Amino acid sequence: MKLAYVFVEHPIHHLDHTFTYCADGYTLTRGMRVQVPFGSKTIVGFVEKVEDISDEEVRRFPYTLKPIISQIDQFPLLNEELYELGNWMAQRYIAPKISCFQCMLPSKLKPSSTHGSIRMEAWVRICKQNDTKLTAKQQSAYEDLQKEKEMLRSVFYEKWKIPGKKLIALGLVEVFEKEKKAILENIEKNKEEEFILQEDQKKVIAQVEQEKHHRVFLLHGVTGSGKTEVFLRLASKEIEKGKQVLLLVPEISLTPQMVKRVKQRFGAHVAIYHSGLNAQEKYEQYQLVKEHKVQIVVGTRSAVFMPFDRLGLIVMDEEHDTSYKQDSTPRYHCRDIAIYRGKYHDAKVLLASATPSLESYARAHKGVYALLQMPHRINGNFPSVRIVEMRKSVAKGESYLLSDALLDAIYDRLQKKEQVILLLNRRGYTPILRCISCGYVQMCPHCDVAMSYHKEEKVLKCHTCGYSMNVPTHCPNCHEASWRYLGLGTQKLEEFVQIKFPDARILRMDADTTTRKHAHENLLKSFDEGHADILLGTQMIAKGLDIEKVTLVGIVNGDALLNRSDYRSAEMTYDLLEQASGRSGRGEYKGEVIIQAYDPNHYAIQCAAHHDYLSFFQQEMQYRHLTGYPPYRYLVSMVFSSKNNQDVQQSVEAAMRILSKKENCKILGPAQLHKIRDEERCRILLKGKDEQLLIHYVKDVYDKHLQTKQKARLDIDLSPYML
Ligand code: ADP
Ligand code: ZN
What we know:
Layout: E1 2-8, E2 19-22, E3 33-38, E4 41-52, H1 55-60, E5 70-71, H2 80-92, H3 97-103, E6 120-126, H4 136-148, E7 150-152, H5 153-169, E8 173-179, H6 199-210, E9 215-221, H7 227-240, E10 244-248, H8 256-266, E11 270-273, H9 279-290, E12 296-299, E13 311-317, H10 334-345, E14 348-353, H11 358-366, E15 370-374, E16 384-389, H12 390-395, H13 404-416, E17 419-423, E18 432-435, E19 452-454, E20 459-461, E21 468-470, E22 483-486, H14 490-500, E23 506-509, H15 519-528, E24 534-537, E25 550-555, H16 569-581, E26 592-597, H17 603-609, H18 613-627, E27 634-642, H19 645-659, E28 666-668, E29 674-676, E30 679-688, H20 691-707, E31 713-718
Parallel strand pairs: 9-14, 9-15, 10-12, 10-13, 11-12, 13-14, 16-26, 17-24, 17-25, 23-24, 25-26
Antiparallel strand pairs: 1-2, 1-4, 3-4, 3-5, 6-7, 6-8, 18-22, 19-20, 20-21, 27-30, 27-31, 28-30, 29-30
Helix pairs in contact: 2-3, 4-5, 6-7, 16-17, 17-18, 19-20
The site of zinc ion has 8 residues, from loops.
């Protein structure tokens, strides 16, 4: 009998072993999908291995083997490289294998219990030689189709609806179905956009070109130094050699300019892959790569799994961006995967940023990555930065929202018809509702999180789970009606700015104004075209924007991030300030940046004001060294969660029993229980010098957790972001 070992998706995702089925009559290999019976259901799984066993062995099997129901693929969906990558991810991130395979595929191809169907399209072709008398029109339609061999039925009908239908009725033409494919846009290549390269650009390109084999480069190039042009030149060389190129960006909707430039340079041969596409669109882009219809892919995190088979170059723009990390199992980092694939294909990997992550820069510093530098702006000038000490200005009676200095600067720009960006660093700084007689804060009933007040709709919303409620008339604690709104949100800021500048046209960009599809692009386009004077928003406006007329960036609460109890808060502050100030003065006009801060002497703020990444790096490394945080130590987090807090407690205790015996690592936690979406959560952090050892320890906890059939869920996160 032929046996197939199959990975299946199961709601209890604890099950990380294969299930065995009888595969008699099927020709299967690793990486193909099959339908199998599971309990009373039929589900889809992935073949891991096929094996022949003797009748004797079949008889000794502890249970009767059920046969496979059907075979879905004729060819393996994942090639050897991707299959091995899945195994590697499962080990490294301690995640179920099936989840690793799933995250590599567009949802239409996922071997899941709810698998989507692929859209088909009707085509027509000639199926019988013509031996009857046709009308002139029918004859022309017939000949047209004969020339083309086959045509999309819709295209055929556009021209020949009535004669076409008649030909089908006569049995001369038949309709058949084919998978729906992406139609490649017919874009004219635009060579004129190519610039004469600057010295910095030439040098960097030469350094990368010199290397003939896999190597990881870190390009530290200030904002506006012309990195994109470097990517395009390098890409074009690889494509000439017949290689494929992957260009990773943090968020497509925030980088419409990048997509436009790539398309202008490479014409139609570009696939775009990001989370804003629907399932069918994703599938179509995926097929373009698989069938070698395109040589270059521009995409976000998940594009790193595209089915390339001859990669020459992977570029990861804004490599420090946190959206490169997946925030559900498997919690992979796109950079890890890019480097893995680069090695496999002997391809070059170029990480680029104006504010590289500390880990990457430390590696480049040690020579693990090759460090490349572009310290000059193309237009020659950096924006000047002014820091406003808020403690002083508020004491003088100025507004705590916008200081006089910033108000004056805005006024000046409005007079000159230039544009302004105002950034409100809202994370950890949302407007909350507090009772002033007893101090009660309205919390989300489902999460241990304070509700945020949304003025336009006059409701309270939970930013963690989305729950919304009306403002209670009286405080539920002391029954007084004395609510006060604390903190500062984008809506309140907008209102304030509008009062100060009644004629100014203001655009607001935050999570509330960008829920609809294409909302991002539309807002940015509108600002770019000059339909507004002031763009006001949260961190999402700090990224990638290149708008000529912006000459002032005001950062309303520059140090809000510093108050967080996250070891990365200084790094995040530096990134945000440097990236945001990079939006100012990109054109011919000189730019200015004003940072309002309560703690103006903090090195993150001072270094950003001087555009001095290296000093920031050195001071921050010292701090990390002293406190024992990455990149000097590694971290792994284990989060136990369940609706029932006893389940959580039991699992945490079991984990602590195992971990307390381990050496060469430090246990941080268990932290207090914390409720999110009605689930109790508890985290244990493991810290140590040896990453492999930590993974090994956590795997131990994970295996025992599964073996003892613990009820709580266990989520593992290697190098977690939020602490
Ligand atoms: P970065 O990605 O480093 O922030 P960009 O690639 O967006 O910078 O380049 C900044 C600006 O300079 C863009 O408007 C770009 O068109 C322009 N640019 C890039 N390279 C050159 C060059 N060699 N000569 C003239 N302009 C250039
Ligand atoms: Zn909530």
